[in-house]
Amino acid sequence: MEGVKTLTVELGERSYPIWIGQGLLSSVARYLQEIGISHNQTLLVVTDEHVGSLYLAPVVQSLQEAGFRVFSYTVPAGEQAKSLACYEKIMTYALEHKLDRQSVIVALGGGVVGDLAGFVASTFMRGIPFIQLPTTLLAHDSSVGGKVAINHPLGKNMIGAFHQPLAVIYDTATLATLPAREVASGFAEVLKHGFIWDETFVQWLQDNAEACRRLQEPFLAEALYRACQVKSQVVSQDEKENGLRAILNFGHTFGHAFEALGHYQRLTHGEAVAIGMVLAAHVSEVVYQQRGLAERVTRVLSTYGLSGEWHTLPWSFEEVLQKMYSDKKVIAGRLRLVLLERMGKAVLTDHVDVEILRAVWSLPFQSQV
Questions:
Q1: Same structural domain, 39 and 78
Q2: Which residues form the 3-dehydroquinate synthase N-terminal domain (predicted)?
Q3: Same domain membership, residue 215 and residue 330
């Protein structure tokens, strides 16, 4: 289709397409038919209050006009929707409206909606198909790869599954309504894909930062395509995070600790991960003797309006460390970190001495502004 970028997550019989382009929501029915969704399959569109007010009515209308039987459920906007309470309410709604094993869940929204709706799909009648319609920059990451989950009061994403979508249909026109802070937050994950896998992508993002931050085409679609390409390559090689896929958590062990300590309100996910990536880059410098690595990571993040400053956070190193040890990525009591052997080459290790982390925490921050 003209003007639409397409790539495939290669998982054998469960391979699926990612479509990226402007105005795709108006053609959702056509894409569903292309992947074999028939009119006798009931659709349940899950969205949140913010996204729903913008896009739910036209999406439902277009699907109904194409002959689909469609229901919808709207959850509150924000991380609080990834809860057992919201999960149970959607399950009840699906049962009350007679969804069956052939029904399809459609996740219309950002990462929270995608994770929640995907987890519903993974467990309803032991698993039904679902489709991702991401509407945020951050969701370029969460919508690809099949990780679906809800939160527990004691930890983020602690209740979840691996459940791949049938397709990811990414309408970049929906990103125009995002506030600047959310745009910056989303680019943290875009940059992460470059840091861990492709130094030339990092340079491209640095060279085209102004156009990307303005969501200017064709730069926006190219950035998302290349980031999704990295994610799909990693997932194709290691679907269930037995090894390689863990590198996608670069910056996240620190970042998830910051999010949890801030009760998911002080920092956006991207802001927390950006700080985590700077700290992880400093640790990488110590472990792999890569001088200048943290300075470059910090500089590139700053071009997207992201600060890696951790000294202004209100928590002590001991508080952060304790929260890091409660992360699900801790195995047998050993803290696992993703580090950079060099720019574009990430590795997973559980051999970093805590005293190195403590020393990095005490370093002065070098602002790039």
A1: yes
A2: 73-184
A3: yes
